[in-house]
Amino acid sequence: MKKAPNQLSTAREQELLEAARDIFIEEGLGRATMDQIARRARVSKATIYRRYRNKEALFEAVVNDEVELVAAELSDYELDINDPRQTLRNAASAIYQASTSDRNIELRRLLIAQGRRYPDLCQGARNRLAQATSQRLTAFFQALIDQGRMRPVDPAQAATTFSLVMSGGLRPLFNIRHTEAETRHAEMDMTLFLEGWGIGKHQESVATPQSAG
Length: 213
Prior knowledge:
Blueprint: H1 10-27, H2 34-41, H3 45-51, H4 55-74, H5 84-99, H6 102-114, H7 119-146, H8 155-166, H9 180-196, H10 203-206
C-alpha cells in the first residue's frame, strides 16, 4: 500500500529538512515561503502541512536537526588521559574545524538573526552546542586535576573556556578562518591554555601557584 503523504520515509524527511534549511538561509525566515520549500524538496505543500502546522514549526524542526548534526561534529574527537597535551591539541583542531564549517557558521547566523523572535529555541540550541563541546572535556579536566596533572580549577569552566577559545570565537562569523594568522593565533591560545593551567605537569608543580617558588 502506498504511504500516506504524512508518512514520509526517514530519507525523504531529511531531504525536506535540508531543503527548508537552504531556503531559510537563502531567503531568511521572513521571506521564505512554503511554496519555495515544497518545490526545493519536491513534495506537495499539503504534505508539508500534514507534517508541520506552519512555517515556524518547520523552522523549529530545521534548527533542532541542524543543532544535532553540528553537535556531533563538535564532539568528534578522542581524549587520551595518558597524553593530555597532544590530545587537547587534537581536540582543539577538531573543534576549530567543526566550528568554522560552512554548516556551523550558517546555523549560528540563522540563530542570531532569529534570536529575538525565538529566544527559547535559540537559547536551547546554544546550550546544546555548548554541551557538545564541554561535557566530555569537563570529565577529562576533572580526571587531570584528580591526578595532579592540572591546576585545581572548576573543570566545567575550564572546558567552556577551552571550547570558546579554540573555536575561534566570533571571528569565523566574519569569515576570518583557515588563514596563517589564525593558525598562529590558535597555537598561541593553546600554549597559553596548557601552560596557564599546568596541564600535563607533575602534581608538585601544579597544586598551588606558590609551588613553583
